[in-house]
Amino acid sequence: MNETKTPEGILVRKPPFEYPPDFAPHWNPAKPEWSQLANGASVILPYFEPCMIDAMRAAIPRITDPALLTAVKAWIGQESQHFRQHRRFMEDALSDQESSVSPADTFAAGCVRTRLAGA
Questions:
Q1: How many domains does the chain have?
Q2: Is 21 part of a structural domain of the chain?
């Protein structure tokens, strides 16, 4: 795994996640409810994290403290990796799971795919 740490202690990692073709949406069989909670959070994060990244980038011209500027840039790097991993998870790991979910979930999955296609 490729990772660096800023002087402020922010760890910027680029983890190599792989999702097998037979990936099950209940990836924690001991606690399937936890799997679904985490999967649900992953639906939001490919949209929320880029908004936070944009907000931090917009703030950069106003930052006068060099240490804070370094920390903000490191945070942007870390969140860029997070959102990409959540996006891959939605695209790769959960893309074929609609047959086992409700019509409302199928609709939400379609909305996610539409947004990802335009992102």
A1: 1
A2: no
